[in-house]
Specification:
By secondary structure, the chain is an alpha/beta fold. 38% of the residues lie in helices and 12% in strands. It has one domain: Phosphoglycerate mutase-like (Rossmann fold). InterPro entries: His_Pase_superF_clade-1 (IPR013078), His_PPase_superfam (IPR029033), PGM_Phosphatase (IPR050275).
Length: 200
């Protein structure tokens, strides 16, 4: 099983969409940010400005190519420039796309989700959780192998897969547009990955 490289990175889930607000499974469906999501991305840029002073600077941004993530990444990139930061390179990686939920896309989140994470059930036409985990780990490793400290802008289910790869409880919801500073045990006097939330 591919492991995450022991390197620090920043992570941001995209801002809110209408489907997030309605509690629907999005997956690969290309739902845009709503007005709240755009405002959340603006606010995240300010939180990153504070976070990079406390923790470490962002050297480049790697985003999922889905519109809700790429728009969030672009808003953060522009917001950091407005706060006085140098423009950051922004690229996309298809490996950061959200999981395909198959026949569950556009449907309310259901009881199947825990079983999907456990590997006991996969909706028809959906991507198994183990495959998502391998894909997510490979994408983050590509971002950290580039040198420096990346900001990964992606999705909620994908981050559950990364939590699993970090040996953390997987089914923990990450709120929209909440910046995380993530450090491996090798950089800490700790036996576990550490996640620090940037908040007002």
């Amino acid at each position: 099983m591919t492991q995450l490289h022991p390197r620090s990175y920043w992570y941001l889930r995209h801002g809110q969409t209408d489907w997030n607000r309605e509690g629907l499974s999005q997956g690969r469906t290309n739902v845009p940010l709503n007005a709240t999501g755009i405002a959340q991305a603006d606010a995240a840029a300010k939180l990153f400005q504070d976070g990079i002073q406390t923790h470490a600077p962002i050297t480049h941004i790697v985003s999922s190519p889905l519109d809700r993530a790429l728009k969030t990444a672009t808003i953060v990139q522009q917001g950091l420039v407005a706060e006085g930061c140098a423009p950051l390179p922004l690229t996309t990686d298809v490996g950061l796309e959200e999981v395909c939920f198959g026949e569950q896309e556009g449907q309310p989140m259901g009881d199947w989700y825990d079983s999907w994470i456990a590997g006991d059930y996969t909706p028809k036409g959906a991507e198994p959780f183990a495959d998502l985990r391998a894909r997510a780990v490979a994408a983050v490793n590509r971002a950290t192998e580039a040198g420096g400290i990346p900001l990964i802008v992606a999705h909620g289910a994908l981050f559950r897969a990364l939590r699993s790869a970090m040996s953390l409880p997987a089914n923990v919801r990450l709120p929209n547009a909440t910046p995380l500073w993530i450090q491996p045990p090798e950089e800490l006097t700790s036996s576990a990955w550490q996640l620090t939330i940037m908040a007002d």
